[in-house]
Amino acid sequence: MRLVINIVMMILVLLSIVSCNQKRDTGIDKNRLGIIDADVNSDDTNLKEKARFTDAKPGNAETFNRSFENAPPLIPHTVEGFLPIKIESNICLSCHMPDKVEETGAVAIPKMHFTNLRPALNEENGIYHFSQKDTLVRVEIDKLNNAFFNCTQCHVPQAKIRVNIENLFTPEFREKFGIKKSNLEKQFKDGL
Fold it and tell me: Are 106 and 58 in contact (CB under 8 A)?
């Protein structure tokens, strides 16, 4: 019996030595990053020209369709002079606040940006902890939720670029209007 145990132990030691000496995968080759099978630094796969952003002034720009259902709308006008957006300095609000859109013709900031969405907190003996039920507290507030102050965190200006990589993505929308308008407010509890 002792002989069998010694043989098994020797086999295990040999296997561990052999496996430790195997060449390890050191990660992703930096020349093969991405979804294309090409050198990412090659002139054949890089942008053919610098991205061109629109020069259209706010109010004179053509809007873009959404990239997918409930995607944040793209900024169709120039953002020159608008950035950086800070909590105390956000020029976007001068046109997109709901009380300004009739005057400016801009798209209003949605109600979801005036909502506090946080997990429910319970307090026990002066200590706060999250609810076990993952209950979401949804509270309408009368001012922009500061979590949404940085517009360009989600909304980005559209650029015209040319690349030689075919885009096979085809968006699908549950509602016909979804290509132009969000239904996130109604679909909120379903998730994105």
Answer: yes
Residue 51 lies in a domain: yes
% helix, strand, coil for the chain, step of 5: 25, 15, 60
Nearest to 154 by CA among 70, 73, 41: 73
Give the pTM. Answer: 0.63
What DSSP string runs through 138-165?
EEE-SS--GGG--GGGT--B-EE---SS
Helix (H, G, I), strand (E, B) or coil at 148: helix
Residue 133 lies in a domain: no
CATH for 164: 1.10.1130.10
Task: List, for residues 137-172, the tens digit of each pLDDT value.
Answer: 778 888 999 889 999 999 998 887 777 667 778 888
CA 137 distance to own-chain centroid: 23
